[in-house]
Amino acid sequence: MRGExxxxxxxxxxxxxxxxxxxxxxxYIDRNTLALLAPTILRDTGLSGEQYGFIISAFSVAYMLxxxxxxxxxxxxxxRKGMASAVAIWTGASMAHAFAGGLxxxxxxxxxxxxxxxxxxxxxxRTVVQTLPARQRGRGLAVAYSGGSxxxxxxxxxxxPIFLWWGWRGAFWFTGGVGALWVAHWLWLSRREPFRxxxxxxxxxxxxxxxxNWNHRRTWAFMFAxxxxxxxxxxxxxxxxxxxxxxxxxxxVEIGEVLWIPPVGWEVGYFFFGWVSDRYLxxxxxxxxxxxxxxxxxxxxxxFALAPLTDSxxxxxxxxxxxxxxxxxxxIGSLAYxxxxxxxxxxxLIAGLGAGSWSxxxxxxxxxxxxxxxxxxxxLAFLLAALFPIAGFAGWRMLHGRAAPAQA
Length: 408
Fold this sequence. Notes:
Layout: H1 15-45, H2 49-77, H3 79-96, H4 103-117, H5 120-131, H6 137-189, H7 217-229, H8 231-246, H9 252-258, H10 261-279, H11 287-301, H12 313-341, H13 347-374, H14 378-402
């Protein structure tokens, strides 16, 4: 009988991926609490939409830097110590939001939070390739990463009642407490043997370049597809509450009642495209099919530009749902693409480069989107967000085509 991580192992082989699902869930509760309560916080503190965009950028810059750094740390020092340290850092930063009152204090707390949360997805991908066989890694990645979308789903359902009871500062005390509980549980769970096992080799894949390198066109192709293809996700996460408040005139409580809907598309997308990666894309090795998938995702993403053209609340929420679903396809597909070429030993770094590049783009564009919202130019903001996947697909296709010949 094979061990829990073998091809025919028992359900226990999924425990490591589920642990990473839990940590990504907590990370998105932490980061989405500010987005959910933004209308109230901006009103209470006098911050503008543009200043809110700069606060998001502070998180995104630190998150961008933290992702590849934590990826390296996890690849070299291991999951147990690395993840415990990262979650402890961001737990303290989450609690610090309760003491913030202006641009600089929110920006500082947000930056430390972003740096700590940079370990989330490198830890998830590293765990999947270390504990699951090749034929299950797409679905394992969906499990590990789906905590983020699930966290975005449950944040309004959990945090809104806490906000009503204890105010927005009390909500940040809650998020910090949840992180502290995870650290305590992780220090016990990570003693298990699967977290210490060597990474199994990925069979039937030609590793042309063993580690990601800034001189490799495939590294940039991967980051183009990840960062630009899934950019509408960032727009939905950080701007939806402001749009619902300003344009559709929803109260903070009403926003909390519906803001779980768009991330459901993200959650469903992870599992759907994880299955597609394993069954249709050959875990990232069938690049002709991957090109077809990315093109279909790009065309479908243009529907996001229609959201501000309708007065229907139901249609708006549906379009937001679709945007996050499609973004999940770019994330899973681009990670499968990178893992088909690069050594599994650098899986943490690969995930870090992907999430870091996405965060870099968020840092650049969010103040601009905030400015457009201040000027009430919502149609232009949504249109620009919908065009990012076109640039992502074009960049991926051009860079991939100019790289070394792919596997036959």
